[in-house]
Amino acid sequence: MVRQTTPVFPPLDTLIPPLTPSQARYTEWGRAALRGELVDAGRPKPQPSKQFQKAGRPVPAPTPSVLTPDQGEDQDAAALLPEIVEETRRRLEKQARENRETRRAEQRARFHQLVTAPTDEAAPDFVPPVSLQEGRQPPSGSVRVTLPRPVTPGPAWGELSADAVLDSVPWLSKGARLVFRMMHMLAVAKAQDCGYAVIPNSSAFHTPQLLLAFVARYTTRHFRRLTNELEQAGVIDGGAHAAKVKTGIGTTRHLWDGSIWAVKLRPSTCDAYLAPEDWRHEWRDFQADLESGRTAKKLMSYLNTCEGLARQEHVLKTWAVNPNAKMTSLCLERTFQAEQKMTLQDTVYALPLIGELSQLKQAGAIGNAASIIAHALGDSHSRRFWCGLLWTATRNGSLEAFSAQLLRLLADVQESSELRNPGALFAARLRSA
To answer: Three-state SS for 202?
Structure first.
């Protein structure tokens, strides 16, 4: 006989631990949801304390977190949102308007207080600057000393060195280096005379090429080769300069009055160059120099004297700084004095006398006569042309016919100013005669 017994289970509370308060609350919410009841699953929002609330502004009511039967789909919730936004916008505009009015009222009161204050007294809340406070203080026994303004140091011209520039171009020849040192000295003197506030990269000056070549003891051809070498290195830039000169017949011609140079003063990546203003500038009063005999050749003859050899550097600097400056040496001024020149008419009448001179004196007389004729006709470059014609007439014994044709040419030049090349017309007439 088998005895059937029912299984014995231990109590439920011994197997499953008891629920925590939060678990029990969630369990109740689940059972209520299964029964179809409303569940308040939101956490209560903390309300601000009364001591932090403003007296003039009511405390907003908390928004219900549980939908009641009279909310939700039964009413048009979307229609309430624009009303809330509009009310918020009106409230913000009103607050901003009140703030602006408050600031304007404060500014008006401040301005009125400053305007209505006495002349010698400031407003109660106005603090004058320190400079005014010191000025209003009564004078004391101390002596106020005004210090002079600090003088801004000028450019250090003495620190400029030609060797510093030559170090950047070590491939230059010995002659080119000698020429650059001389031209750098003249450029520094010219820049210092201009009074630059800052040392420029290069400085331009005017000096005839004949003078520079004479002082450097080079021929003009070799001097031109050395300057071309310096120009290719970018340390100088130069060229011939022309000036307007009025001729004896009233016309204007352009003649070369010398050369202008731009020399690099300090090491830099920029090459020396002549600006367009340098080419247009009238460096020298060439018309006055021609009339007074102040030419480069006469200056070279002075530099060959004992006094001139000791003053070569001074003469070059004086010319570079101001080509129109008057030299201080009496010997040099006597050299520049124009000799008593014969008029063109006197020269023409004296031409037949050249044949009576000796051969040594004929060369000087023909040269002087050719210079006077070329200058009177406004073409000083044709001096050799007139020398050749005079030598031919002297050898052929036709100086009287030469004088007659020259007088006829001068009469034509005075009557008509349309003759472009009087020398060509004279040569044609002389051949036909």
So the answer is: strand
